[in-house]
Amino acid sequence: MNYFLTEDQQMIKEMAAKIAKEKIEPLALEYDEKAIFPHELVKIMGDADLYRVFVPEEYDGLGGGIFEMSLVVEELSKACGGIALAYAASGLGTIPIILFGTDEQKKKYLPRLAAGEIIAAFGLTEADAGSDAASIKTTAIKDGDHYIVNGTKQWITNGGDAEVYSVIALTDPKRGARGASALIIDKGTEGFDFGKKENKMGIRASSTRELIFQDCKVPVANLLGREGHGFRVAMKTFDNSRPGVAAQAVGIAQGALDKATVYATERHQFGQPISSFQAIQFMIADMAIQIEASRALVYQSAKSIDAGAKNAAALSSMAKVMASDTAMKVTVDAVQIFGGYGYMKEYPVEKMMRDAKITQIYEGTNQILRDVIAHDVIKQAIRKKR
Amino acid sequence: MKIVVGIKQVPDTTNVKINPETNTLIREGVESIINPFDMYAIEEALRIREKHGGTVTVISMGPPQVETSLKEAISLGVDDVLLISDRAFAGADTLATSYTLAAAIKKMGGADIILMGKQAIDGDTGQVGPGVAEHMNMVHVTDIRKIEEIDTENKTIIVERLLEDGYVRLRTSLPLLITVVKEINEPRLPSLKGKMKARKAEIPTLTAKDLEIDLERIGLNGSPTQVMKIFSPPKPSGGMIFNGEVSESVSALLKELKNAGLHLSNVEEN
Amino acid sequence: MNGIEVILENCIGCKLCVKSCAYDAIEVIDKKAVINEKCTICGACIEACVKYGAIKITRVTFKGQNISEFSGICVFAENRNGKLASVVPEIIGAAQQLKKSLDKPISAILLGNNIKPLADELITYGVDEVLMIDNPKIGDFAEDVQTELVTEILKQKKPEIFLGGGTVFGRSLLPRVAVKLLTGLTADCTELEIDSGTKLLKQTRPAFGGNIMATILTENHRPQMATVRHKVMKEAEKQEGYEGKITEMNDIPIPEPKIEFLEFVEEQMDTVNLADADIIVSAGHGIRDPKNLEIIHDLAKAVNGAVGASRAVVDADWIAYSHQVGQTGKTVNPTVYIACGISGAIQHLAGMKGSDIIIAINNDPNAPIFDVANYGIVGDLFEVLPELMKQVK
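Structure tokens for the assembled complex are given below, as produced in the milestone run.
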């Protein structure tokens, strides 16, 4: 399939695919079973310059955008959706700095992030603030030349393993959502601790922890953007990162389809490979259609963001909803094609099914995103009526 | 420290298929790759540079398409590459090849360490390394599985050489030619920046007239060994296959072996 | 294209040559084959065009030695720790076959320290003259000294043929000697015979990764050198009382060694040495997971055999390289080779097809291994192996 990528894009895609096949795939099942964070793979991806892909050139990056990042995420996810998060979630934590950082902040963090020497994470969600992000309670009260941060963030991907955290907290609690600001907080800052590693259904090679702030002193120089703009930072970040999440889902789905198709050609029943039965063929066709359509949406929304589109939210939400629903359906069908073997942990597809589920939940539940999409469609319709 | 790595571009013989009807190789469309053993040589050279400083130059003798392999070497982070290419070099056996490579290395001003892979997967002779060392009048060691240490001041080096039944530790002086085995390291992947540099790179080339060589000693003329005939090995016809239920197949097999005078539990030497 | 040309009248543009070329060096333009600069003159197209004879290679080499001065068959008697290398009797066996056609004496070069008993042993294998240098300055592990001595002896004695073992040592020493003597060397020969007309040594070896065979001649240069791998040729028969002489070549100065021996570390092998084993149980990628190698080890123990592996298993880091059987691993020649979950890629076959009996276990009935196996079981190795162990006991 020719997607008419540029030479550079093709090179990036092939590099990610090579690392996925040679370095990630051999470790995927073990790291999932034992919930191991892939430190050595972070180094390999860093040395290969993958983290550089979406960082601007002036800060040691290769100057690519969300499209190039999505190419990488998809390839890595074909091998393991969990290990891919050591890359993708770092992207999520890096994007706020790229979009809103001062030159000094960018100089301080981006080169090392681009080299993969350190990785990032993004902290918004709390126990009582998931879809209702506006009801976060973590505070960051100014005291001289520091903010004192108090509160707990929940379910933060790369939590504990990342060195740099982009965190949303209330600098002016009385103003509610309009009083939130974004802060860059370094691991090791006094008063910044982590909860236990969560025991998850899937993406188990990714580490998920609480971020616990107790009178944590963060220098005012670490304010990202302006005070009160915290949710603007968060929403813009999510708009930009959503194609990446969608790409992860597409990768998981593609990986599952690839394995299921090969299996179907090898598994013989009634004297023939099961891939010769129409029941299986139609399943495979439907899986392929959904994946290709999801991929098209990922490419479309990513290119749209990179081209500077003002309103990227609806399109990237569509990509994420479609891709994640596809990943869930495709992985379930992949297990079905594998039959009894698909249910066994020695075979790779049950893991892919467990990995797929989270893509429908995080980075905006598919319900919230449908809300976003509906609002946008309705708004456009009203505008056209006028 | 001046480090030179000799590499060869080879067809990927591990992926070659046989046409089942004619029992001949399907050689068309076989990918060209850097000889796998040479990848370990490049990696070792980079590691020596990281530890002791210096430059890594990768050279290769072959037709113009060898440029792609030299670009791959650039993407891994070597300092320079050099292509030695001329129609006059074609048809060279290992004597002519090692003569030509040595002439190129001499033209470059020599080296402190020359690294090569143990053998090429198309020729499998392993002869070019020792041959180059002889033409350079240098000591050589083969089958090196580890470079333990290099004393750059005293110009001595300690290596571990893999033998059939273990390994031997040897000390010698630089300059030295080393052929490496796969146990020596884990080759790194190229980086994206490296690949971009490689894409734009111009590959310097030396032809026959750039070298100080006796034209009779290169290419076909310089090759005492000549291929008289090439043929496909005969296709075997296969034996007795058991594909029934497992315990039946196993007992049937053991019965056949017993009839042939073979007891698996105590096989006698013939 | 220098040295290789298309005889246009004979060429019908059938493209058989194009299909045979791994270097992408031939195209058919206007119904005639055209060879371009990518050609490495490997000769594969000549074989493909044997019907029409439209491709020809013209070979002229630089001036060689005076052929008439060279006579006799010489072998390199590699030795270590007071023992002849196990390949040496096999090389002598090959030399004996050549002697039948050439009717020339066999000599052996023996270098080392306190090696006189080995000279006697060589004679019992049918060596007519042992050319010996027995000196404490000659070490076992590095060939810098031996290379010089071998070269000197060959210059003095001028055999027409010189054979050595394709061992680690031999594959390092002989190429250097060949360059010093400006002659040709063919590595890893599987067949050696004398051409009845020309009396030249026909050196046949696998090429292209073991996928094809090539027969090579060294027409104008002497000695014609070749190496032979362990377990390829048949050992010479011992003849007690054979009359041969020992010539001590003490006029040859012994150079100062440039390589210093520090220590030898023996490999810890948990099971029987692969090269000498009578039974080998070998694991391929069908084993699927490194922990499943336990069944292989268990079976090997049960039949008192050694454990082998395909390259795929070694490359995946599931077992040490010393167990690898195949073109880039070891060549083995056991009585019984049991291939478990091995597909039978050519490169693996190159290392084990000399086995007396090959038993293959694979759940793919189309696996190429079944073409070379004497016996095969199509089935799941995880069921077959335990059953085999049960029934063998």
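Chain B touches chain A through ten residues (CB under 8 Å). The CA atoms of residues 45 and 56 of chain B lie 6 Å apart. Further analysis is deferred to the final report.
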